[in-house]
Amino acid sequence: MNQVAIRAEGLSKQYRIGGGPRYKTLRGSLSDLMSAALRPWRHRAPETIWALRNVSFEVKSGEVVGVIGRNGSGKSTLLKILSRISEPTEGRVEIRGRVGSLLEVGTGFHPELNGRENIFLSGAILGMRRAEIDRKFDEIVEFAEVEKFIDTPVKHYSSGMYLRLAFAVAAHLEPEILLVDEVLAVGDAAFQAKCLGKMGDVAAEGRTVLFVSHNMPAVQRLSKQAFWLDQGRLRQEGTAAAVVESYMSSVMAITHTAALPPDPERPMRLRRIQIECEASGGAGMLEFSDPISVALVFDVNRVVTSSHVACFVSNADGVCVLGTGDADLDAGRLSPRHPGRYQASFQIPAKLLGEGAYSITVTMGKPYVEVYDRHEGIVSFRIEDHTSRRRASQHVRRPGILGVELPWDVRELSE
Amino acid sequence: MTGDAGGSSGDSVMVIQASPAWALSNPRELWAYRELLYFLVWRDIKVRYKQSVLGAAWAVLQPAMTMVVFTIFFGRLAQVGSDGVPYPIFSFVALLPWTFFAQGLAGSANSVVGSANLITKIYFPRLIIPVAAVAAGVVDLAIASVLLLPLMTYFHVWPGPTALVAPLLLLMGFVASLGAGLWLAALNASYRDVRHVFPFLIQMWLFVTPVIYPTSRVLALLRQVGLPAWVLGLNPMVGVVEGFRWSLLGTPAPPGGVMAASAAVALLLLVTGAAYFRRMERSFADVV
């Protein structure tokens, strides 16, 4: 019988919100104090938001649990509380076993230090003993494939090398309970595959893993259980397949436009996105034979370099079927962008995506290095085929993500 | 990692919940994280010497140049006096603990905000950050101290057995620096305008500490207004600096009341600083 590794009871976290910055100024606090003393009846409670509200669950030892939910649903807050970075406002958690948390790749890396030094530093920060790092050093270097550059400052590393080294250190942590957040959202496909493989290994070794991810196929593949957080509450828990399915069908509720408030703290910020569907019959349906236009408005709040604006189109299973960025065909866009408001648009060709529901994720930042702004499935659309020949002739949905019509060459072979 | 990172106890249960407002850090947990402290100090030192062209020479040049300037302006022009010791070595011996204190104070005051990327991504006792910032100064202090040898040879001033007390006085400087640093670090994380006060605060602190001038002249002033000598010791650096001079140069020992007051204030700063830091630490990840 499995022991309970994590038991959370009535977990809640309250944040203060408001127009101002997250931090206060002493001058402001003093003048608030003065005015509060002078006019106590006008005192107003600060606006607050519950990032997590009364969440209770149990994770058994050896279980792998995926935590899913929209942006701002409380997933990251939950991981921060479980890894003791931030304290809960209410409720309690009991954790049995040594916890390792991996909330980003490269925590504690210092650009001036070389690979060897960073392995020790980052290892110590992640909670490894010096002797442990000594023992695993060669293994880490080998896993990261950076033998030749081990004495080079990591600021000279390519972003791929940097990520590999950073992940290699983290991957050699041997906690009984592993908490992982969005690590899989960075890096190229090969790197992501490596991360997933390593997480699979960790799970297979019988460790308890709790991981937050937007990658639905990965959640289904790696975990048996899943939690769905929605607006700070635990909306559903159960088998990964069931939870992912109900989450996806909720996400797929069609929204063609979205607008966001400005956020000057972010170097780049999405303000508006819209899927154009003039040609369609409305109701969020797009016609298979029409191209789909996506228009964005975004703010650049300070000079940024090597950054792009990218959109990922995912189908109802959460599989990303198309990724496109504004610098893909114009490397000039990687040169500095200056503050201001910009408009961008692109078109998904007609007759490319097959029938079904799709969502678009928007991300802005330095590819594979830093995310300035990211909105998971912020808009969605459904493609239906009422016009194409094959549809008219067959009346059934043809399988396949792509709906590209291919001309066939068929001829009778003469003897 | 968790609090039981030190022990490999798989059966121990860790409880996470809102902690009481006032509590002291758990010393066992701090001990469990001693290796992290070592690595953070090591990182600070490595990075500091890697980034500067002059490297370790900087640690010597800084107090040496200050000594030269002080000697010209205060020793010669202003004739502030130096308790019968040549002014250059008189000021240099005071600059050693002072620079250690001031750099530790500035470093720890900015340490929490400067480590935001760590604080928001991983757990460890936050107290380690300012402690590491002050501790990293020990290396600078050691390097700068090398200059004592040529200075002592040149001026023929050799320390007696009292030099054995010097490490204790440096420890007192460490305690004062960390104590004040903890207050400022916690304030700085919560109130972002506080940092503008740091340079001014440190400059003022230098003037009320007998680095440039000997305490003997201030004592005379105190007697005139009828205040007891120990009042001076309320600035812990008075005890540290004057004590350090006494131990290495054989200048008149500071009155006992001064030393006792300085030691007491240094300890008080540390205890209250640690308590305040602990109180504010709970929200660091949410505000930095």
Structure explained in plain terms:
The complex is a heterodimer of chains A (415) and B (288). Chain A is α/β, with parallel strands linked by helices and 415 residues long. Chain A folds into two domains: 248 residues, Rossmann fold (3-Layer(aba) Sandwich); 138 residues, Coagulation Factor XIII, Chain A, domain 1. Chain A is built from nine helices and 18 strands. In chain A, the strands form four sheets. In chain A, strands 5-6-7-3-8-9 form a six-stranded mixed sheet, sandwiched between helices. Chain A has a five-stranded mixed sheet with strand order 12-18-17-14-15, with no helix packed on it. In chain A, a hairpin with an 8-residue loop joins strand 10 and strand 11. Chain A is globular and about 75 Å long. Chain B has 288 residues and is mainly alpha-helical. Chain B has one domain. Helices cover 67% and strands 2% of the residues of chain B. In chain B, helix 4 runs parallel beside helix 9 and helix 12 packs across helix 13. The longest helix of chain B has 28 residues. At the A-B interface, helix 1, helix 2, strand 4, strand 5 and helix 3 of A face strand 1, helix 2, helix 5, helix 9 and helix 14 of B.
Overall average residue pLDDT of chain B: 88
CATH topology title of the largest domain in chain A: Rossmann fold
Structural class of chain A: alpha/beta
Unreliable parts of chain B: 1-10
- CATH class of the largest domain in chain A equals Alpha Beta
Chains forming the largest contact: A-B, 49 and 47 residues
The unreliable regions of chain A are: none
Strand content of chain A: 25-35%
* CATH homologous superfamily designation of the largest domain in chain A: P-loop containing nucleotide triphosphate hydrolases
| Shape designation of chain A | globular
Query: How would you sum up the major sheet of chain B?
Result: none
Whole-number tally of structural domains of chain A: 2
Widest β-sheet, arrangement of strands of chain A = 5-6-7-3-8-9
SS class of chain B: mainly alpha
| Distance from first to last alpha carbon of chain B | 20 Å
Tally of helical runs of chain B: 14
Q: Number of helical segments of chain A?
A: 9
Distance between the amino and carboxyl termini of chain A? 71 Å
The coarse silhouette of chain B is globular
